[in-house]
Specification:
Layout: H1 12-26, H2 28-34, H3 41-60
């Protein structure tokens, strides 16, 4: 669970910004986006295969 304590000399907006940054570092927002809808196991497999292909293509390209 991500939490932020508001300091005495800190504005609410600044604390909210720190909270959002900590959520982003923890990967909470990307996890929520990923679980917004059901993904069939076959679609998940295809997506992971495509990601692996992109990574390997990126790794072995010569610029």
């Amino acid at each position: 669970m991500t939490g932020v304590r508001v300091r005495d000399d800190e504005s609410f907006e600044k604390a909210l910004k720190r909270f959002n940054k900590s959520c982003e570092k923890a990967g909470i927002l990307s996890d929520i986006k990923k679980h917004q809808y059901f993904e069939k196991p076959s679609d998940r497999k295809k997506r992971k295969l495509n990601q692996a292909r992109r990574r390997s293509r990126k790794r072995y390209t010569t610029d």
